[in-house]
Structure formats: C-alpha cells, structure tokens
Write a structure and sequence with these properties.
This protein has 453 residues and is an alpha/beta fold. 40% of the residues lie in helices and 13% in strands. Helix 2 links the parallel strand 1 and strand 2. Helix 2 crosses helix 4.
Length: 453
Amino acid sequence: MTELRSGLYNAKLPPAGQRNALREGHVPVAVYGLGKMGLPLAAVYARVTGDVVGVDINDDVVRTVNDGECHVAKEPGLPELVAEQVERGALRATTDSVAAAETAVVHVIIVPTPLSDDREPDLAAFEAVLDSIATGLSAGDMVVVECTVPPGTSRELVVPYLEAKSGVTRDEFGVAFCPERTSSGRALQDITESYPKIVGGVDAESTRVASLIYSEITANEVIEMSDATTAEAVKLFEGVYRDVNIALANELARARDDLGIDVREAIDAANTQPYCNIHAPGAGVGGHCIPWYPYFITSRVSAEMPLLLTARDVNDSMPTFTADKLRDELARTGRDIEGATVAVLGVTYRPGVAETRATPAAGVIDRLREHGASVLAVDPMLDDDVVASFGATPVALADLTSHALDGVVVVTPHEEFDDIEWAAFDDLVVVDGRGTLGEIGHSVYVIGGGPRP
C-alpha cells in the first residue's frame, strides 16, 4: 500500500483500493480537538481506520486518553470504545500537533469556534490548527472540517491559508466541510447512524474523497453538496431554524398570562398537524451552537437579517423573564423577592451535559441578584468553583433541604432533581423553566403553562 503515502486526493489507487486501505490502517488520520464531540469522532475513526492520533492542547485530556480512559461524561459506549481502541493501538493522543500533522494523510478539524465579545466568529483556535497542518501537509492529503464555521471559510480561508504556508499547491490537496450533527449523550449513535452525513468539497475531487471516507464512518446516507460553502450553510441553517422556532415558542409563552391559557397545551395540540412543529418554550437557549450560529451568518452577509436577530433578542430575554416571573409569583403570595433565598436548579445549559457556555442560568442568577435575592445554585454536573463563578452560592443536592428557601427556579432539569424531597420545604414558590415538574405540593408557575396549584 505504498501508493497511499501519496494520499487519497488524486490517488493512484481505484476507489475500492482506497476503501480497503482506509479500513486496513494504511491511511493515518489526525483528529484535532478531543472535546465532547472530538473524542467520540476520533474513537469512531479509530475503530474504522485503525490508525488515529488525537490532538489536544490539554495535557490532562491527552494523558487520560493514552491511559485508555474517557474524560467525556455521560456518553454511552464511549468509555468502552476509547479503552478498546487504545488497547489495540488504533488510538493515541498527543499535544504535538505538528508531529501529528506530519504523519497524517487525513486531517480532521473539530475545535471550538466561539464568538468574540463583539459577536464575530473567533477562529483563533481553528487557525492555530491550520498552522500545524500546513507544517506537515503533503501532496495527496485531505483536510476535513467538522466544526462549525462561517460560510465560505473552507474556500476563502482554509485553501489559501494552507497553500501559502505549506508550499503545497492548491491542486495537490483536498478540503471539504463535513459538519458534525451530534448531540451530547448520543454522540456515537449520531456519528455512525442517526442522520445522513453532509459532505461538500472545494472541488469535485475533495467531495469524492470526503464521501468515500464518511461512507465508511456512517451506516447512514452520505449527501454530497455542490460545494463546501453550501455544506457550511446546511449546518448553520439547522441551528437558526431551531433558534427562530424556539423564539416563537418563547414569545407565545410570554403571552400566556394575557391569553389565560396553557400555551404548552396549545402548542402540543397544534403540533398534531404534520405541517406544524413548534418547539417548547423555556428559560432560555444555551450552548455553543444555537445562540452563536445566527452571527456566523450575519457576519458574512451584507443583507439585513431582522428575523434572526429578533429571535436572538427574544431568546436572550428569557432568563430575565424567568427571574421576573419568580418575583411576581412571590409578590402574589405577599412576599418580597428582596431578601428572599432562592435556589436555581441547573447551571449547565442542558441536562446531563457539563457545559455552561451561554447558559440561561447565568442570566437568571444575575437577575435574581439584581432583585436583591440571596441565590443558591445546585448542579450535579459541575464543581463548586464553576457554580460559584456565576455569582451563586454552590449547594450540594443532598444539602438542599437544609436551607430555608423562599423560591426555586428550575433552569436545567437534570435527572438527579427527580429525587428532591419537596415536602421538606414550607410554602415554596417555584418557577419551572422547562415544564418538567409534576405535582410537588407547592405553588408552581410553568413558563408557557402558567400557575399550577
């Protein structure tokens, strides 16, 4: 298989030979980024190709992976898969990105691409990976971008960047955008079978190679886009659809008291029509995806995008609305929120995921403190110092009933909260930001649902 040292792009081997080489460990792969999406992807690549080096800047992450252990919590099957692939020598990790790039034929980028303070996509980590790849890039190599980037990034940044810094000419290496379509808690399933895999190259050969690779990675359909920019837009369109839809649900939820109805009930009934799919209202939208994706689009277009920006405003307002609702519900019972002791349940942005980026809990805590409340916070996924960094006093779930609470706000309904002994509290006012509480023996106001006895 010496032919494969010349890579997959413009390879001499026929497609069948390339597939065999990929499966038999003759195509070294480097995966840059071993976070909650990167590690599952690296492990799946290792299972298929038998030769993967994962790259991460965190020494602890690298050491953990090389020990055959998994640092990503609550990801079914991942600890076992990592251990298995490390044991058989198919997966290893390093902080030396240049050395990894020098050995790899396929380079897979899955690093964070956050927003800067002025709501511009921050591609610093992405460009740092490109620097490493450029150092080790060889003719025939294939670069696959899985992390979300603004439309045009593959064509306008990746290709000229690598060509200028590597000395490898444009027609000697491939670049494709192949977005991750993965949710925490089901990463392995999503990578390998849940959804069709989107691939789009900067040229026809890049698309062909990306499609060949991912037809081995996933059991689902591989959908080839006309180009990389279209593939980049697909990922963003998925996110902004959800953001706008959630904003609609949240705006309807804000009208609940004026309408005097259970908006959640009405949404559920409306969704029995196949053309209607209104999402659920809640205390806000968090994470590193949905709240950021609109700005990945608006940063690259000259046209005004009022719908995307209005949806962002609505969703960004929900933490304040939620905290204010607790104030109003306390007032309805003759109590003042100033001086009250309030517990916020859930600081991560999603249940079962130790991720706090753009979490609605931050806005809820800030608003409660503005009202003069003493704020406690409980989150079984996070260390106390992380919880405290949001301005709340961290409390262990087992110790919650030892506190004399006036109010509770459910922001993120971790399954551990199902065991709360609500009867241990006296005369509690609760705002349920997600509509997950049943009968708890206290006054509950559900966002979108209204007051429940």
